[in-house]
Amino acid sequence: MSFNFDLVWSSLPLIIQGLGMTLKLLFLSSLIGLFLALFILLLRISGRWYLMWPAMAYIYVFRGTPLLVQIFVIYHGLPQFDFIRESIFWPVLREPFGCAVLALSLNAGAYVSEIMRGGIIGVDKGVKEAAMALGLPRWQQFIYVTSPIAIRLALPAYSNEVVSMLKATALASTITMMEMTGVARTLVARTFAPYEIFISAALIYLALTYALQQVFAWIESHASRYVKKER
Amino acid sequence: MSTTKKTLLAVFAAAGVAGAAHADTLRVGMECTYAPFNFRTADGVLTGYDVDVAAGVAERIGIEVEYVCQQWDGMIPALLAERFDLIVASMSITEQRREVIDFSIPYRVSIGRFLGRSDREFNLFEDDGTPILENFEGLRIGVERATTYNNWIDDKLPDTNYLLYDGAEAMLLDLRNGRVDIAVTNPMKAYLDFLSQEEGAAFEFVSPALDSVEYFGTGVGIGLRKGQDELLEQINAALAEMIEDGTLTEYSHRYFPFAINPEEWGDVPSN
């Protein structure tokens, strides 16, 4: 078998047809996942066991099972129950897109909330004590003192998570979504040339990852502009 | 002779003929999940019409076979990459595929049919078998990726809304759940696994048999890499013998209440 470089280039524009869907999946699930993560984080650091335990159970389940399994359970498993098919959620769950976004968001929620918690733990104790000494109420301590520092500390890990999410969107192709990997798999089926087509898809993923890294590098440097550079 | 002795002898024999043009074992690629053509029984034994055909051919040309399971959309690439030597996986003999691999003579008919709920009026086809395009509008169609049905829809119903599945099971599940309105697949399989079962009771065929040679080929054949004319001749001779002496009909009746080899083909019961 010979490797056909022309096919790599000529399939690029075809695979890019799936780019919009990949970005839609990434953007929506990152956004929903972020809000979900914040909610879970607040439960997790509330200090009350009846709020902490459900949050810990959620994180354990979604970090402890493969995303592919979560996608299959949501897509193939949920419709087995009549009450789900008759519920108000069915219009969303009926769509492969809805199922993919739900699975990716739930997954991101678990990981991102742990990343946020890591940021909060990293905030220097002295800073928290200073805030307390100023007599700020607890919610003001959290919003004005802890959060800005925690966000800065969590950013590198968060950017990592977003890149992981980008790659995770490829799993949506297993539930009929025509995002970039879905398009690539269909092209392979037509051309019988898996190497060329998947390398072409890989090039686009690499370009996207590069763009994401640049965006996060800028945000990180912006967030750390008052921080003394360590040498 | 015990199996161990047989294996040992085979090892010695293989060592003796090392470098010979033909290995004594050919690896056969199939999905292993496409009941009743190639699938595993509850206790893990690989069986089905394709498996019987592969074993029958192997016996007649005096080779051993070893089965390799491969997902459908990578079947031809895996053959070309020499992960196995033969495809015996219900693959239709189409012109597009013949550009890259060779096929034996057909050992089964190749057709497609649409399925839908019996309590809905679809009226998708004229009496002469041409699709009525406007009646497909608004319907969501299920189809398996990289199949003859996939090509047919791309050409005949280019503007329809369809979902691409990796296997028939997931597609029929979604048909039942209402994610797709109609689905196109192999009617023999659909009859056996779905329509004649409890879960498919509310469904029926909603199209005539789609059988144009342009899309569905002359039937289902054994695929092999190009340039193996001697092996191809042996396989064809074995298949011809199996057609002649009724072996294929016998294999059909192991799984179906009707024959599925081209020579005996009637039709699928319409449920």
Break the fold down into its secondary structure elements and pairings:
The complex is a heterodimer of chains A (about 230) and B (about 270).
Chain A: H1 5-16, H2 19-44, H3 49-64, H4 67-77, H5 82-85, H6 90-93, H7 96-122, H8 125-133, H9 138-168, H10 180-191, H11 194-223
Helix pairs in contact in A: 1-10, 1-11, 2-3, 2-7, 3-7, 4-7, 7-9, 8-9, 9-11, 10-11
Chain B: H1 3-16, E1 25-30, E2 33-34, E3 38-40, E4 46-47, H2 49-61, E5 64-69, H3 75-80, E6 86-92, H4 95-98, E7 101-103, E8 113-117, H5 133-136, E9 140-144, H6 148-156, E10 161-165, H7 168-177, E11 182-185, H8 187-195, E12 203-205, H9 213-216, E13 220-225, H10 229-244, H11 247-255
Helix pairs in contact in B: 2-10
Describe what you observe in this structure:
- The complex is a heterodimer of chains A (231) and B (271).
- Chain A is flat, with a radius of gyration of 21 Å.
- Chain A has 231 residues and is mainly α.
- In chain A, helix 7 crosses helix 9.
- Chain A has a single domain, classed as MetI-like fold, CATH 1.10.3720.
- Chain B is an alpha/beta fold and 271 residues long.
- Chain B has 2 domains: 135 residues, Periplasmic binding protein-like II (D-Maltodextrin-Binding Protein, domain 2); 102 residues, Periplasmic binding protein-like II (D-Maltodextrin-Binding Protein, domain 2), CATH 3.40.190.10.
- In chain B, 36% of the residues lie in helices and 21% in strands.
- In chain B, strands 5-1-6-13-7 form a 5-stranded mixed sheet. Chain B has a 5-stranded mixed sheet with strand order 10-9-11-8-12, sandwiched between helices.
- In chain B, helix 2 packs across helix 10.
- The longest helix of chain B is centred in the C-terminal third of the chain and has 16 residues.
- In chain B, 41% of the residues are buried.
- At the A-B interface, helix 10 of A face helix 3, strand 10 and helix 7 of B.
